[in-house]
Amino acid sequence: MGIFPFSLTIPDYLNQLSKKAVLMQYAKISGTGSYLPANRVSNDDLAKKVDTSDEWITTRTGIKFRHIADDSEKTSDLAAESACRALADADLQADDIDLIIVATATPDMQFPSTATIVQQKLGIANGCPAFDVQAVCAGFMYAMTTANAYIKSGMAKNALVIGAETFSRIVDWNDRTTCVLFGDGAGAVVLSASDEPGIIHGKLKADGNYLNLLNVPGQIANGQICGSPYISMDGPGVFKFAVKMLSKIADDVIEEAGYTTDQIDWLVPHQANKRIIDSTAKHLGLSMDKVILTVQDHGNTSAASIPLALDVGIKNGQIKRGQNLLLEGIGGGFAWGAVLVKY
User: Fold this and answer.
1) Identified catalytic residue from 43, 67, 137, 179
2) Which residue from 17, 61, 140, 340 has the least number of CB within 10 angstroms?
3) pLDDT tens digits for 69-124?
4) Is 300 a catalytic residue?
5) Cα–Cα distance measured from residue 334 to residue 331, given in angstroms and rounded to the nearest whole number
6) 253: nearest Cα among 201, 329, 328
7) Catalytic site residue 137?
8) What global pTM score does this model have?
9) What is the pLDDT of residues 191-240, one digit of tens each?
10) Domains and CATH numbers, the chain
11) Helices H, strands E: what count in the chain?
12) Which position among 128, 270, 273, 298 bears the catalytic label?
């Protein structure tokens, strides 16, 4: 049989080839942006409110500061500001966006989605799909992987992927074991269809058997909040599971992509705890000189932490075009994921 199927006309054959070419597109990072609320809270500030100290927090987490949203700032406000900066970085207009995905565990309201609110705030009137994903601290990995599938299938050309959180609103500020860990912020990435490599490989995992290790059990029912509205966490249990699963999924993604650890220029991990980051880097054989680290300045911003760290690494000149980045994160559920991307 020849290379040309004679059952098709030449125009039909060329059209099929064109469709296949679309399916083979890469999703490339064309712009990044981030936003942090103005209120910067130090460990010493927290020590005035709960029984803790800068030394206690820093030794156990690596965190020195976190940003807390003003009462008037909603998750969508943080998300929209980071999105504007990412659009400017990509040299795109808001209406060039044909997909919006917001990763958040702290939405503005029960519904509609924060993504549709961001769409309205950006003035995007083209009717593009907009929705939220909720995988807590792994949310940005889930959102980025979903946007990649849209672009590779030809269903989107310019996707706005945002991680945004106001975790300060679900923290018990009298609980020193959790209130010292979290902060607010947002990070955004524009993924654009490209013939050049961008996202190379991604993998997502989840295991609901561990849901009691990290959760916010409260829910709205009959006009009331039933159950605690605050974060509940088994710190040692989370640490043990996170180190094990982040190391494994990093290995899997690198191997399945046909790469080696030596080809990874930067690790951009979820910024939850410096000890978890140290352990993952050590497992991969990466020096900390190849790790983007922002946990000391941001605290754990959940779904916002990876895009925030990515934007910091790019804007300060550490991350350069053509370099290979390994992004990874894990969140309550548990849900976790990793993405290998050429920037």
Assistant:
1) 137
2) 17
3) 999 999 999 999 999 999 999 999 999 999 999 999 999 999 999 999 999 999 99
4) yes
5) 6
6) 201
7) yes
8) 0.93
9) 999 999 999 999 999 999 999 999 999 999 989 999 999 999 999 999 99
10) 23-196 (3.40.47.10), 200-342 (3.40.47.10)
11) 11, 15
12) 270
